[in-house]
Amino acid sequence: MTGQDSHSARNRTWTARLEYYFTGIESAFAIFGLALMLALSLVEIVLRNFLHYSIPGADVLIRHLVLWVSFLGAVMAVRERHIKVEIIAAWLPEIWHRRLERPIFLFSALVCGVIGWAAARFWYQEWLNAPAGEQWIALLSIVIPMGFVLLTLHFAMRFVIGPRARARTP
Predict the structure, then answer these.
(1) What is the pLDDT of residues 1-21, one digit of tens each?
(2) Transmembrane residues, as ranges (predicted)?
(3) How do the domains of the chain map onto residue ranges?
(4) Using one digit for the tens of pLDDT, what is the confidence trace for 73-131?
């Protein structure tokens, strides 16, 4: 039996289960967005080169899909500990690293929350001032505040749940 089998979703705390389901949904959206972006780009290349035609609005949609996939990728990188926010911990002894993880998660959640709030206010103004025919573009732009909200949620969940166990070396 592997370590992953012994820690199934039903044996976790409710916060760990919540994080587990969030990450599954985020991963599905990231995969779907990447596949759609690649397929739409390929179709655009074929249409432009062979039929001298382009799908109206496809270039704007592809640009926004790049943002969506990038933000979801950032969320997954934070979740999997590929991105660490520990400028202060880099200069401290090893014993302090574990003690500082929760405060760093809290600080990161607060920073991302403030940026997300500012991005939401900016997006709302963009939505209000968008011409009637271009509101779908403003709707796609909600990725920036949503990305920061997702980052905030993940940092906050890590603050509540606590740091992940470090991989043990035999």
Answers:
(1) 444 544 455 556 777 777 778
(2) 20-40, 60-78, 104-124, 136-161
(3) 3-161
(4) 888 887 666 556 556 666 777 777 777 778 888 888 999 999 999 999 999 998 888 88
